[in-house]
Amino acid sequence: MIMTCIAENFFEKFSTIFTIQNKASFSWKVDGETLTLPPENKPRYMKEVSTEYLTCPIRNVIGRFGDKWSLLVLYHLHKGGTLRFGEIYHQMTDISEKMLSAKLKDLERDHLIHRKSYPVIPPKVEYSLTELGQSLMPHIDSLIGWAAEHFQDVTGGKVLVK
After folding, report:
1. What is the mean pLDDT of residues 94-119?
2. Which 3 state secondary structure label does DSSP give 2?
3. Does residue 63 surpass a pLDDT of 60?
4. 26 Rama class: left (phi>0) / alpha (psi -120 to 50) / beta
5. Which residues of 53-75 are buried (b: 16+ CB within 10 A; e: fewer)?
6. What angle in degrees, to the nearest 10, is found between the helix axes of 97-109 and 68-80?
7. How does DSSP classify residue 90?
């Protein structure tokens, strides 16, 4: 059994995270209150992690859209404006419908794209960038420009096909 106690520094209450792994008794203080694990849950190790880890923008923000499929979806919506699912799917020839659907849901959850459904048969759904998504695009365009400029240096001219 692995138990993680997250001590969040957002309100200056706590300052560390402890990860505790089973067997024997262990206790520590948080806000003056002593927390104790029963003897059968004594940790084999304890790791203290900085709260900067919890608020890391790479892990918690860029990690939400930094994968190849999300970046491509954002790129196509930026270039194409409002698009339907099928239009995005046909522009991204190597993505499955299931993966595209999952990425669209993730980007909508993160407020980068807007999903508008119409009550018609057959169902009609359109996707577009939100204001937040639009504000991200100049940075993605810069990254794409860097990638194009250094394509040969990074890839050695070889295209990776998976």
Report:
1. 96
2. strand
3. yes
4. beta
5. eeeeeeeeeeeebeeebbebbbb
6. 80
7. H
Enter the tokens of residue 57: 């923008």
The domains of the chain, with CATH numbers, are: 2-55 (no CATH), 60-147 (1.10.10.10)
Cα→Cα distances 23→3, 45, 47, 80, 122, Å: 11, 10, 16, 57, 57
The pLDDT assigned to 145 comes to 94
Q: How many CB atoms lie within 10 A of CB 129?
A: 20
| Contacting residues for 28 by C-beta, under 8 A, at least 6 apart | 18, 34, 35
The pLDDT assigned to 2 comes to: 34
* Span 19-25, average pLDDT: 43
**Following CA atoms 85, 87, 92, 95 in sequence, which dihedral angle do they give, to the nearest 10 degrees?**
30
Q: In the predicted model, is pLDDT for residue 20 greater than 60? A: no
